[in-house]
């Protein structure tokens, strides 16, 4: 069985998935991935991506909070559904973000220098650090969850790390929305 093989290698698979994911993100942001490797969408699609991603992030905040609430009530199936929905939303966000950044680059902040230095950059930096820290935590708790029966999860670090991952994920999504507001609405 494939799940049995994965089950015995959760930390190693977490590391591999984390490295691949971060390589894609940094490759896109740093311009290492050639924009010519992807089809070019109309400008209206690129204009819509930040707004779509803000909606996706907001919905993900709701699904993460729902997942936390469900598990506190002991409803494992609803918790699993909410967290898998959150993961799917994160993947949608990431694919759209990576596509936009790879093809058209990052957005420039158009506000005053003081806001840039003391609000925008610190918010962006914290958002990015949390997003980077979340990636291995999310992979790890996800791999634990999909490779074990529920009753065995209680003997793993899924609960403890899941709490940390959910909290960091929520803050990262929320700060991402603050960055969005600063970039696309305030300035």
TrEMBL record:
This protein's record includes keyword Plastid: no
The membrane-spanning stretches of this chain are: 12-33, 48-68, 80-99, 119-143, 164-186
Q: Name one Pfam family in it.
A: DUF420
Asked whether the UniProt record includes Transmembrane among its keywords, one would answer yes
Q: Keywords of this protein's UniProt record, alphabetized? A: Membrane, Transmembrane, Transmembrane helix
**Matches recorded under InterPro entries:** DUF420
PANTHER family tied to this protein? DUF420 DOMAIN-CONTAINING PROTEIN, HYPOTHETICAL MEMBRANE SPANNING PROTEIN
Q: What is this protein called?
A: Putative membrane protein
């Amino acid at each position: 069985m494939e799940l049995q093989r994965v089950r015995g290698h959760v930390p190693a698979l977490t590391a591999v998935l984390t490295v691949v994911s971060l390589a894609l993100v940094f490759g896109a942001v740093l311009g290492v991935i050639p924009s010519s490797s992807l089809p070019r969408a109309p400008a209206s699609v690129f204009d819509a991506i930040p707004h779509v991603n803000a909606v996706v992030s907001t919905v993900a905040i709701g699904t993460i909070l729902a997942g936390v609430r469900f598990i506190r009530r002991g409803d494992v199936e609803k918790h699993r559904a909410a967290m898998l929905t959150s993961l799917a939303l994160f993947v949608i966000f990431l694919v759209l973000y990576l596509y936009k950044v790879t093809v058209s680059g990052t957005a420039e902040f158009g506000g005053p220098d003081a806001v840039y230095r003391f609000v925008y950059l610190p918010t962006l930096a914290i958002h990015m650090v949390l997003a980077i820290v979340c990636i291995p935590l999310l992979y790890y708790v996800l791999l634990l969850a999909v490779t074990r029966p529920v009753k065995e999860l209680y003997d793993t670090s899924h609960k403890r790390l899941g709490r940390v991952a959910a909290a960091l994920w929520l803050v990262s999504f929320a700060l991402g929305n603050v960055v969005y507001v600063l970039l696309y609405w305030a300035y």
